[in-house]
Amino acid sequence: MEKPLILVTNDDGITAPGLRKLVAIMKEIGDVVVVAPDSPQSGMGHAITIDNTLHSKQMTIDHEHGAPLEYSCSGTPADCVKLALQELLDKKPDLVVSGINHGSNASINVIYSGTMSAAIEAGIEGLPAIGFSLCDYTWDANFDGATEAIKTIVQEALTNGIPQGTALNVNIPKTDGKLPKGIKVCRQAKANWKEKFDKRFSPSGREYYWLTGEFELLDKGEDTDIYALNNGYISVVPTQFDLTAHHAIQTINSWNI
Amino acid sequence: MEKPLILVTNDDGITAPGLRKLVAIMKEIGDVVVVAPDSPQSGMGHAITIDNTLHSKQMTIDHEHGAPLEYSCSGTPADCVKLALQELLDKKPDLVVSGINHGSNASINVIYSGTMSAAIEAGIEGLPAIGFSLCDYTWDANFDGATEAIKTIVQEALTNGIPQGTALNVNIPKTDGKLPKGIKVCRQAKANWKEKFDKRFSPSGREYYWLTGEFELLDKGEDTDIYALNNGYISVVPTQFDLTAHHAIQTINSWNI
Question: Which of A32, A153, A243, B40 has the lowest CB atom count within 10 Å?
């Protein structure tokens, strides 16, 4: 039986340990091609490069553990997927996986997530796609606890497909190598970021800001991704790119417009 | 009666004619503050600046027709909204409007849209927000046909509020100054971009790409934004930032995970 072709990308860049781990796991399941940003693209949301040129370079990161075919790309995660599908791959992949992100993409973070933008871009192109994130922002995060669950989810996705019009947002609790308690299918928790701008002055006296903030959970539901993660479970949220708030159409239709 | 405070932003940059037009229209309705990118940010999706500093500068673009208070910001449209709400404004605005974008943000374009990311960011912060886009990519696009409809929609939004958890995506057909046929509340049409990468070589022989593509409509519905626009109507789509595909949760729950 032919092995499935799996495209791996991310937003932390082609050398990120989380991506190297995902490549290692995917090599046990299929033929792997990597097309990933040449530099970190965190917080890029669903950005694409339309007013600038894109560069791509075939490269080898790790002779022993890498994929046989890897490309770095100067663009965003969504650019990587577009370039892979249209230019770099000989055939359509059976699955697109993005990550493993260093940091949570649960709840409202999905909106700002480069990791998930790659998965959603693949979903828009009609391909099964999954974004994986570990709730640990450090570069030397321990991804070992996630290995078995990632394998299981990917194998189920390859067997069953993923519902049309969706991509999966998988977040994994920080367990420092221990196994999470299990996997929960969830909805996105309602939340936002309480921003705080750290205002500073450059040596020449020019004002500038660093964006910082605190995550503010506005949701007491026990069926949310945050609830699952806080209780030691992996969260799986099917996310969609039809942003229509169907329930609001009737309300707006009652306006005098 | 106190005038409403309206924050105006966009993704084409603070000098874009579409923003200047929106400022002029909003000045007839309320007190206007502008916080907009200092350079074009089209295609930025919901990007935010987390690995770099942000700069902001108070400035005057047009003494006669501008807003009394305008700031340019070095960040993305979502950054502009965050910075405005947390640092630059003295009080919460009653409404946030983004645009008028030079080019369509209907259908799947909403995903890549900097214009809509600003509106959605404001929505996440709990504020009524609307993104306006004209289906004309040129810098000297004629926005005159849109004036009355924009006024009407903004006044209705100020009167009724906007349904919680949504922001409005308003697209206006290219009419070269003539009035559109009317306003339709719609759902987002199913579509994608058939990418084509224009491969070129630099003078030194290095390969590079320009992203180009053709819009591919995959939806025959007569209740979509594209259908409305193609028939000369303004489309209003309530968009949401809860990306959960609730209908898919049951399907994934049947997996063996």
Answer: B40
